[in-house]
Structure formats: structure tokens, C-alpha cells
Design goal:
Elements lengths: L19 E7 L3 E8 L2 E4 L9 E2 L2 E4 L2 E4 L1 H4 L9 E2 L14 H5 L5 E2 L7 E4 L2 E4 H20 L3 E8 L5 H13 L4 E6 H8 L8 E8 L4 E9 L2 E10 L4 H16 L7 H17 L5 E8 L2 E8 H26 L6 E7 L6 H11 L12 H16 L15 E5 L3 E6 L7 E7 L6 E10 L9 E14 L6 E7 L5 E7 L4 E7 L7 H13 L1 H35 L2 H19 L3 H24 L5 H15 L1
Helix pairs in contact: 3-4, 5-10, 6-7, 6-8, 8-9, 11-12, 12-13, 12-14, 12-15, 13-14, 14-15
Bound molecules: adenosine-5'-diphosphate and magnesium ion (MG).
Length: 627
Amino acid sequence: MALLQISEPGQTTAPHQHKLAVGIDLGTTNSLVASVRSGEAQTLADINGDHILPSVVRYAEQGIEVGQAAIEHAVIDPSNTIVSIKRLMGRAATDLKSLRQSSPYEFSISESVVPKIKTRAGDVSAVEVSSEILKSLKTRAIETLGDELVGAVITVPAYFDDAQRQATKDAARLAELNVLRLLNEPTAAAVAYGLDTGQEGVIAIYDLGGGTFDVSILRLKQGVFEVLATGGDSALGGDDFDHAIADWMLQQSGCKKIPTPSLVRLLMREARSAKEQLASVTEVNVKVELDDFAWQGELTRSQMQALIEPLIKKTIMACRRSLRDADVAVEDVLEVVMVGGSTRTLAVREMVGEFFRREPLVSIDPDKVVAIGAALQADVLAGNKPDDEMLLLDVIPLSLGIETMGGLAEKIIYRNTPIPVAKAQDFTTYKDGQTAMAVHVVQGERELVDDCRSLARFDLRGFPPHVAGAARIRVTYQVDADGLLTVSACEENSGVEASVDVKPSYGLTDSEIETMLRDSMDHAEDDMHSRMLREQQVEADRVVEALDAALQVDGDELLSEDEKANIAQARNQLIEAKAGDDSEIIKAAIKQVEDACADYVARRMNSNIRNAMQGHSVEEYAGNEQE
Ligand code: ADP
Ligand code: MG
């Protein structure tokens, strides 16, 4: 994969000109802000000395509370206290069915496609809630650094799709933060570790946070990184551990009633606390009391391990898949970098170590590493570094393609291609006199459009009519550094253009991405078969159409009745074959038509062609015949 570097046009700035830029880890559970000061990236603390800002927003009677203050009220005021908002970023109402069941909020989803949460301050969207977190971090940065902020690098999970990235940018805009770049979280971690000074080879980044899991496979070569693959699951993290433990507590208590939202919150909080303690002790006592509910018991580290093992196994499966994508063997992995609070769980470290067959790296605080990497990048992007400073780039998670004749998906940009990237492909018209073309942008690994996800459709209209195959339509796919796609089409002879920004109103869930990837592997053979079939069907149509057009022009003139009958028979057989599902039979039938027409084609070529248009189509037809 080509190595991409981005360098800023500005020169190195003198120290007094140092522009203030921050890196923000906008996490599902926790968020942090960091900045490079005196050449070193550090996370910034609030007035109480806390570096971590819980990603919790409460719409209280007296205004908006963010972080610890909000968390303290989560139990008594659950419906106005928003947690894990990141899970809703860029999601449409239809994506929320499962989320709604497990969350204490009331959603208002009637009028708009963007779901809103009902709070006492009115209906709020995920973008608005996230912007409160960003505002809080921005204020902290300005108060700590006392300077004008030129912008921020904000991190997102590698699996975030277009809509989710766009939502993150919108949240920043709402917080009046200039986004220098959105950066994948594991990518930021690699920067934080300054791995460019280390040994050359393959590095895996394992990031298990509260709500998301990402794995990235990078290759370090001559001081620069190449992103080989990314994978993960944006609906898996420490929260799920807490869930498993809370369920267990509820089971142990023998409580048969459906727990109230407040009790669920309390159980989750106790579960989380127990889990975190079990990173350093081997057993904890738990006591949960609320209204008429009371339970007290003991949880040992090995009991917890048994509860969460299936979840850790899921992450290991994703690691295995990413290695396969990167075409790297597990023994080629030199280092495994641990990121995210959940990598403090010893069972996670053990199982990851076992899989990769080496001790994972835990030397940088797993909570801060992403923010620190983002700060280092922000510093470069703000123009505080020399031009040759290297920036790690990200890859696209699923292939981007276009629908072609017969419902086939032609890939234009392959998955795991580093971004930014632009790729163009030329297409032509299928019918004589065609003056418009439909562009259908799809995402996914499968061969047929129906099995891929439709991202956008637009028409390129108003180019001059040409005979089939003579128009030249260049379709360009461009993915910017933030992972957002723009598609444009241009008919080159006339210069007619059309384009569309692809911003779907909702995104894919990671399980959908996974399902799509898994399907594409499971169905590789079927897909090959379907593709060949469709191709032959399209070819059959083309042959029949060209034949009919020719017959109409000079069939009576150049052919005897016998010859005509012969050709008609071959034509009928082809139409019959086309209706079936055997590409070989269609291919043979096409050959038969071609054979039956061989003399006719020769005669047409020799005869005087009456006008340019027909002449052209005969040539086309003859060309087809000889292929
Ligand atoms: P996110 O990136 O989703 O915001 P973080 O990386 O901040 O998440 O990690 C938060 C998760 O880490 C929470 O699920 C939290 O319970 C977990 N965590 C924090 N400390 C520990 C610990 N000592 N042991 C186990 N899990 C921990
Ligand atoms: Mg994180």
C-alpha cells in the first residue's frame, strides 16, 4: 500500500509563534484534551486536577452539567442525564430500536430522521449532547493555556462511517471548535507511542474502551507507518462487561421484578466499580441498595473472568480477522499496544497476550494515549512542525463502488485503502443516443449491488447523444482526510458534469459492517458465479440488440429467407439461454449467434454503408463479432 504523507505548506514557526492546537479524545465513556507544551504532549486537567472528563451530560434545572457533576446525578435523574451519547452519533431513528430498549431516555423520533432525546431542556440530538462535552474541553484548554485556539484534532473510532464522522464534525462546529482533522483513535495511539523510533515491523493497536473496540494493524518502516488494516466493533467495550456483571448481580439477588432505570444505573455503577477494583484485588464485596431492592455479595476475579470471557473472545476474533486483512501472520507482530481503560482488566491483557504470543505494551496510561497522539498531530497540523513531519493516515473500512450494467458492483476504491484518496474510472453508454447516465454509489465487498449498501444516486444529464460506447464518462470518487466521500461524474467530450457529496442520513452499525464482510467471504464463490452470469446476460442483451438493429437496416436486403431463419433460431436460443442461470450456456448461445451471423457481418462490411451513424454501428457490431 502506498505510503502517504501530508506536510503543511508553512515553514517551521519560531517558538513565540507557536500556535495553540489541541487533541481531543471524544470517548464514549470518557473524554480528554491534550496539548503540546514545551515540546511535550500532556493531557490537561480541570480545576480539580482531573484529566478525565466523563462523557456525561445532564440537563439540570439550573443549566447543563458535564462530566463528574452530571454523573453524580445519573442515578436520581436518569432521563435527563445522557451517557454514551457517542453510540447515537450519526444514527437514524431506525438504527435505534435495540438501543432504545436498553436506555432510560425517551426518544422523540416522530418528525425528523435525526432522533432526539427528550430532556427537561427540550429535545436534544446526539450532536448537541456531544457538543456540550467538546465545549467543556475547549473551555478547559483555553483556561489552562490562556491562548487562542487555532483548532483541534478529534479522534473517532476507526469504524466510524461517513455519517458518524460528519456528526462528530457537526458537534465540533456547534462547540465553535475548528476541526483540523478527524483521526482514528488507534492511529493516534501509534503516534503517542512515538513508534517511529522503535524497531521496524508490524504493530497491532488493541483499543478496548467503554463502548468501542478497535484493532489496527500498522507496519513501521524507516521511521514511518503504513496502515495495513483496521477492524473492530463499535458496540463492544467495558460497558458490556458492566452489563454482564450487573445481570449476574441481579440474578444472584433473586429479584424477579423488572428493574427500574435508577436501579439499572446503580447496578451498572456497582458492577463497574467492582470490575475496576478487580484489576488490583482478587475479590470484592458488593452492596446494592435502592428502595425495596437490597443485595450484598462477593465477586471474585475468576468469577468475573468467566462472565466477560465471551466478550473478550469477540475482540480476539476481530484481531484475527484484521491480521488476515493485513495479510500478516501473528508471529510477524512485533508489538501490541494496549489502549483504552478496559485494557486494565487483567483477563483482557492475558487473552490478548496469549493470542499475539507476546506481552502487550501498557507503559503509557491507556486512558491518555489517544488524546496525547491527537495533540501531537494537532501540533503538526497547526504548523508548528517542519514540513517533513509525517502524519499517519487512515483507511476506509468498506470498499466503495458503482453500479454497472446488470446490477454488478464495480469497486472503485478498495477497503483498507489509506485516505485521503481519489480514484477515477471511465465508463461509456450502453445505448445509442443515450444522453443521461445514472450513477449509483454503493458500499460493500459483494459482487452484486443488491448485496451492497446503497449510499447515493445521482444522474448525469444533458450530454450530447452518441452511439453506444462512444461517450466517455469519467466517474471520480474522492475520500477526504476525514473519511467523507464526494462522487463526481463528467462526460469528457462535452464537459457536462454532476457531483454529489455522499452524506447518508444514518450510518452502518459495526455489526452490519461485520456481517457484510463475513457475507462477502462466505459468498465469494456464489458471487463469482452471479457475476459471470450477469456479465453473460448483459452481453447477450447487447448481441441481440445489435443484431436486431442491423437486421432492421439491411436484413431483408442482404439475407436469404433461409439465412434469416437460421439467424432467428440462434437468436431465440440465445434469449432462452439468457433466461436461465448458466453462464456457460449463454456464452455458447452467443457464440452460436455469432457463427450464424458471420457471413452477414462480412457482407455488411463489404456493402456500401449508407450513412455515418449506421456505418458506425455496423463497425461496432463487426467489432463485437470478432471479440
Ligand atoms: P472510551 O474510549 O469508550 O471513552 P475509555 O478508554 O475511557 O473508554 O475506557 C473506559 C472503560 O475503561 C470503562 O468501561 C471503565 O470501566 C474501564 N476501566 C477503567 N479503569 C478500569 C480498571 N481499572 N479495570 C477495568 N476496567 C477499567
Ligand atoms: Mg477511548
